[in-house]
Amino acid sequence: IWSAIERTQNEQDLRQTAAALRENEWQLKQLLKLRDEFIAIASHELKTPVTSIKTYAEIVQERMIEKNLVEESDILKRLNAQIDRLTVLINDLLDTTKTAEGKLSFQFGPTNMNEVIQERLEEIRGATSHTFCLELSALPDAMADKERIGQVVSNLLTNAIKYSPAKSTITISSTALPNGVELSVRDEGYGISIEDQAKIFDRFYRVTDNKMDTFPGMGLGLYISSQIVQRHQGMLRVESELGKGSKFVFSIPLKREG
Ligand code: ADP
Prior knowledge:
6 helices, histidine kinase, alpha+beta, five-stranded mixed sheet, binds adenosine-5'-diphosphate, globular, 7 strands
């Protein structure tokens, strides 16, 4: 009899524990939903004023250049660069909520990926002391959204710059595959442990190493990049060794399925 009572007690305990777990899971889901709603609203609201600040700052910068006010126009140039950084952060937040809801829009067309690399590199290379080495092969056009896939290239370049020592070399390569193209960005930086390699594509994940604390970021770039590459029916992956450097590789097909 005692063992039967004990069994019933255990079953009751188990049922109670399962109910508590379900309740916790529900609460967690509600919290995550609230977080996403907050991010969506906050980033949307921030975008409008920042866009007009940028417009005005550009007008003022042009006028200062016209009036030959060298020092002032230099300050405005710096201001504009900071506004651009802010815009990238806000867009990342907006894209994150959109991609989580499947609402990120794409316009696919034949795209020369070497051109995308050159354009994105031009935007960035003046702002860093790194050496860039290009290993580009002749490529057929891939089916891509030029703006979005360019965002991936920019993210990988920015990370390579951020997470490797000044003046080190960053190698960008492109290769034609039988049915697609493959791009890679390789740095001689701090590298990423095997454990972290599995997590860096997660939303908001950043490696919590003391060294890394000094680098600004929200842990969204790789999440968004891998989502964008997946929407291209491609793959983004990393090869890396701590202390030696990292190589991010992605491929996209020439034609889209379906
Ligand atoms: P963020 O750079 O804003 O933190 P990302 O999603 O782009 O966000 O990257 C996530 C994390 O992956 C970074 O915080 C960093 O720890 C690591 N990481 C990304 N790229 C590199 C790289 N090239 N070398 C070393 N670590 C990297």
